[in-house]
Amino acid sequence: KQDQFILGIETSCDETAAAVVKNGKIVLSNVVASQIESHKRFGGVVPEIASRHHVEQITLVIEAAMEQAGIGFRDLTAIAVTKGPGLVGALLIGIEAAKTLAFAHRLPLVPVHHIAGHIYANRLEREMEFPLIALVVSGGHTELIYMKEHGSFRLIGETRDDAAGEAFDKVARTLNLPYPGGPQIDRLAREGKPVIDLPRAWLEKDSYDFSFSGLKSAVIYALRDAEERGETIDPKDLAASFQASVVEVLAEKTVRAAKEFQAKQVLVAGGVAANRGLREKMAEAMKSLPGVPLVIPSLELCTDNAAMIAACGSVLFEKGVRADLTLNADPSYGL
Ligand code: KG4
Ligand code: ZN
């Protein structure tokens, strides 16, 4: 069988990314142009600024990905691009680039769901085994997904308010830490102790949903109350306590789902999968599921990138998923 080469393109948020993946698993190139520096002073991603950066970077990033992969457009099997969810003006830049290249080089176009992409980042390091449970935790998402086979995604739980990463970023802002706050909290938490009592939102007994806005408010009140009493709270302890509350709920629900659905594998994906507290808590919780592997991609594959889009696109391509040149961005694309 001929080798398959997929060019992946991702522009859903603040990273302009392109990558080439061979046979769905081998990363030949993975280029990411981050805009974090431009958004930092606003404390979050500014959509209009994101779109402008994508326009500037997209051609360079795609050229670099092709060059590093050492192949030409005629060697490609297909182009996979993020259709959504994400910022509409940002998504459109990647989609227009993908459509232009697909038209010019007569290549099939494969639309990819951003969250499905995050899950498939795992396949670049280890083969997936089904059924599996995937926890996707990022700046915009907190979702538990059941997969019974390749390309099949069933949402079993999601956040009812803030995404996990969003909660990290908001709490970090309260502590005057720079954006993005997740890595900052992670770092502080390692030096502190989880001694401050914060709530855990378990929700209804059987629910796989999440909620983080109450926790975020509890952090703000804890700081305010201490201030009113003329006391100070050590930000390290607050970071440790907040992180402990988030990762405890994430790990418990993921492992409970893995048991109920008799998962053969548990995956964690998305930017928050980089969190060391979550990695440790998950590893600990997985001890109650002997023989079931926990798979978490390495750091550069956890955060937004295009190799994950190409990896997911590879499977969808084999399943016959195609888009034509009317492909449009869908900012609230469902799985
Ligand atoms: O997947 P991603 O790069 O972009 C989205 O699709 O959202 O995730 C970014 C999010 C941000 O909220 C960031 O603060 C969070 O992931 N994050 C972390 C860590 N590294 C990144 N959160 C907690 N601990 C970390 N080490
Ligand atoms: Zn993402």
What is the compact description of this entry?
With about 325 residues, the protein is an alpha/beta fold.
How much helicity do the residues have? 40-55%
Strand content: 15-25%
According to CATH, the fold-level topology of the largest domain is Nucleotidyltransferase, domain 5
Compute the number of strand runs: 10
Q: What sequence of helices (H) and strands (E) makes up the elements?
A: EEEHHEHEHEEEHHHHEHEHH
Number of separate structural domains: 2
Spans where pLDDT lies below 50 across 5 or more residues: none
Bound molecules: 5'-O-[(R)-(carboxyoxy)(hydroxy)phosphoryl]adenosine, zinc ion
Can you name the CATH architecture of the largest domain? Answer: 2-Layer Sandwich
Shape: globular
GO molecular function, one term: iron ion binding
EC number: 2.3.1.234
Subcellular location: Cytoplasm
Cofactor: Fe(2+)
What does this molecule look like?
With 335 residues, the protein is of the alpha/beta class. The protein folds into 2 domains: 5-120 and 302-318, ATPase, nucleotide binding domain (Nucleotidyltransferase, domain 5), CATH 3.30.420.40; 129-296, Nucleotidyltransferase, domain 5. It is 42% helix and 18% strand. The protein contains 11 helices and 10 strands. It has helices at residues 36-40, 47-69, 88-104, 114-120, 164-174, 181-189, 213-228, 235-260, 276-285, 299-302, 307-318, and strands spanning 5-10, 15-22, 26-34, 78-84, 109-113, 132-137, 142-147, 154-158, 265-269, 294-295. Strands 3-2-1-4-5 form a 5-stranded mixed β-sheet, with helices on both faces. Strands 8-7-6-9-10 form a 5-stranded mixed β-sheet. α3 links the parallel β4 (78-84) and β5. The model has no long low-confidence stretch (mean pLDDT 95). Bound molecules: 5'-O-[(R)-(carboxyoxy)(hydroxy)phosphoryl]adenosine and zinc ion (ZN). 5'-O-[(R)-(carboxyoxy)(hydroxy)phosphoryl]adenosine is lined by residues 13, 138-140, 165, 168-169, 180-183, 186, 270-272, 274-275, 303-304. The site of 5'-O-[(R)-(carboxyoxy)(hydroxy)phosphoryl]adenosine (KG4) has 19 residues, from α5 and α6.
